[in-house]
Amino acid sequence: MTTLRQAGARLISFFRKRELDREFDEELAADIELATQDHLRQGMSLREARRRALIKLGGIEPTEELARTTEPGSAGCLRAPRRLEGRAGPVRASKEVHRESRGLPWLDGIVQDIRYAGRGLRRSPGFTVTAIATLAIGIGVNAAVSTVTKAVLFQGFRLVERNDRILYIHSQKDGEYSGVSYADFQDWRAQARSFDGIGAIADLRITLNDKSGFPERYTATQITANAFRLLSQKPILGRDFAPSDDIPGAAPVAILNYRFWERRYAKDPAIIGQTLQINGTPPATVIGVMPEGFSFPQSQDLWVPLVPTQDLQRRDARNLWFAFGRMADGVTRERARTELETVGRRLENAYPLTNQGQVPQLESFTEFFIGPNATLIYGALWGAAGFVFLIVCANVANLLVARAIGRSREISLRIALGAGQWRIMRQLLIESLVLSGVGGVFGWGIASWGVRAYELATNPQIGEWSRDLLDYTMDYHVLAYLVAISIGAGLFCGLAPALRLSRWNLNTVLKNGGHGATGSGRRKGLSSLLIIGEVALAIVLLAGAGVMIRSFLNMATADLGVRPENTLEMLLHLPEVKNSRREAQISFFDRLKTRLETIPGVQSAAIGLPPAGGIPRRPLYQLSGEGPFIARQSGLTVAAVTIGPDYFRTLGATVLSGREFNNSDGISGTPAVVVNQRFASEHWPGETALGQRLRLFDRETPGAWLTVVGVVSNIVYAPSRQEIAPVVYLPYGQTPRGGDMWVLIRTPIPTGGIVTSLRREISALDSDIPIWLGPYSLADQLAAGGLFGNIRNHTVLFLIFAAIALLLASVGLYAVVAQSVRQRTQEIGIRMAMGATVRDIVKLVFQQGMLPVGIGLTIGLVASLAVSRILKAELIGVSPADPITYIVASVMLILAATLGCLIPARRAMRVDPVVALRHE
Amino acid sequence: MADSKLDLLQGTLHLMVLQTLETMGALHGYGIARRIEQLSQDQVLLNQGTIYASLVRLQQRGWIVAAWGVSDNNRKAKFYSITKAGKRQVKAERSNWQRLAAVIGRVLAASAGGESS
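YS: structure for the whole thing
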């Protein structure tokens, strides 16, 4: 208790220093006065009385005091006598003792050290700026990457408790996502014991009319009534969905997103109980508003209950997006998986026709929403940032060692004057902590900028979509991380010189004017070690960036068989209810094509699904003339793309024989198909494909026989962009499904210039139909690596990291070699005086510099082989051990290293032996 | 031995200051030092600096409090006085000290006896 009280008092004193000093001055003055009076009474002269009093009160910063009270030149001007001591040890000035016992002397010392470090750093601005900039980059890059990684890997949904206990479930067939069947979902829910509950989600695209304004496009999701409960969320206004809300025949209700409530209804609480018209269905009553910041699973405007319709209840209708469950307490993911797979097998046996091969798949937030390789990719990213950070630390440590050695005389002097080893080490550590602290502040700026840039770069068009999914705010976790790595960097960088200096032999250093500390093998060893590390890390990053660039180039330059320049694409969605009649949908797109082509500058327009770069569905197929055929056993599937007239002309593909689809390929026309060159040459080699017949299957049911009316050049649809696969094209007018279609437009007008015209033409046909996605430039889409692709961004990030690493490694090498040349000036002078040529000297410098580079290079190349295997998942058409990349990376590094050695070598060449020998 | 001064044991100065304040009432720093010197019959000569250090510590522990007042000769001075906690502390330390002193005395007497025999 007393100790605590004292500690508190001391801490307070530390901050009230000036005030307490003044008060003590007064007290001291008063006591000196009292003592003087005493002495006077004993019969001393005034001066003697005063002098004695001052001595008695123990030399209060004595010179100043005495000078004031005694005549100049008198003996009193000397130091306060060191006697009158009640105990052993030197007399210390009262003020000093007082201050020490009053406050926190070590804290005072640290403040002093910080000031001292600040002064020292201001004196060498070149060093300071370099060190701080280096640290800021290292710390900033790390904080930025940790923000992004945290958002992607660890965060999960905002506000939701224990995100890690929620698993996202869908069915997979042959390793491919196949959606979720409502009937399966109900069986999972009824049979799986590992979960507190399972909910399900179906995507719903809506046009909303609440009679308050014009119809608008909004995003809504159908969710099971238990969904919010599983997510531990409650409406802030109104009520949650009740179990009775998601059964067939329930009165339609809706719950609003907070942001939507704010934007469209200005947070009017009276919205509860009002009705909304969604997609022309019976009006839905608003029953609740969710808390601010909550959205699930995307940027939702509102939620409606997932009411199973007749269609939805068919087991083969895998129309749900996903199911999700909260694991019960104590259940491991493994147990949940095993149990659900057992349920899945039971369903397979019970419903072989629909469930054969369907395996329930349980994934984490990251795996489901970001991708199966997310952990790997973002882990690699983090690793790369970590490497940059290590290089930064090594570099700054090197700079500090060099600086400390330059200051060896000053430090030796301080040791000689009685500074303890710990005191010197503390001073050096504080200096590097000051550097890393300032670096951390700038690093925060770099990080915020970097995160912002990353957010914008990761496909701006998905920004809206993922706004609520990925939270890139730099919260206190990131701040804590930044502070931790800043301190870590400071300690790490400062420790190297501190440990070195503490081992000095004082006498040698002072005698040799500082050289004693420098030539030691250990110092060189340490610097070389740091260089080896830097080079090795840099080469790993360079090689990693190299293979990613090659992979990216492979993808970007891959011939997809289309001319994506001057082509736009946008997704249109026809609301189901309104356009349920097939003829209406077909006629809508027919008329749309005609209208769009009247826009000045539009050369042609067409529709297609999937879009270029997308992945087509793969139905089973059969050629006519083949024997009896059992669809499932043959297992032969083919990529099928649904298109409208002028698709190939718009994309810039060539019709090799026959024709494109045209308006005659409608419901009443002969069922037609166009095949690509690969399909034709595989099935009818040496024959003409035109007039041949084939049919596709809708699951088990064969479709009509289709006649080949054209053969087109190959267009690549595979995600890797590398393989040319057989593809068949079906006319939109003859396919039974409708709904979403991508519209392709060939026009030299950029997206921004044409979007208004597009909107106008669409709404002239149907004012309820919004542009769902786009328009995007097709070339941009393909370059980004697909609609949600991120390959380009990852490549750019790796490239930036590698560039930083390369730069830092060469700067680090330069610092070390330059320092060594400076210290060996005398030796170089002697060598030259003894007849060494310029060549010999340059060789000497390079030998010293390049040896660690060579070792680092070797280690780095070996490590790269191991490390870049991680990248394999993201690489297209290039091996992680690509020899060309390795050679280029090595050459670049050697060039950078040469540059680092060149400048000091030139300095060494210019050494004048006479000057150098006098250089003491 | 006569001219050598007594070395103060750690902690004894605190006790002396507290004791002085308890018997004398409020005193200024210089007065405390003088009083201790007098009582020790100049066996102890105090560095005033150590007195101030001791006063700060005692204050921080809450055993004494300080207030500005006017001295005998009409000068402003800082007066220290003992608190209740301080008095409790003196009592505890005094008995401690007496016990210690008694033990030391007995030990020394026994050794002296052994030597002489």
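YS: worth flagging: Chain B touches chain A at residues 5-8, 28-31, 34, 44-50, 52-54, 56-57, 59-62, 71, 73, 75-78 (CB under 8 Å).
IM: good catch. Also The mean pLDDT of chain B is 79.
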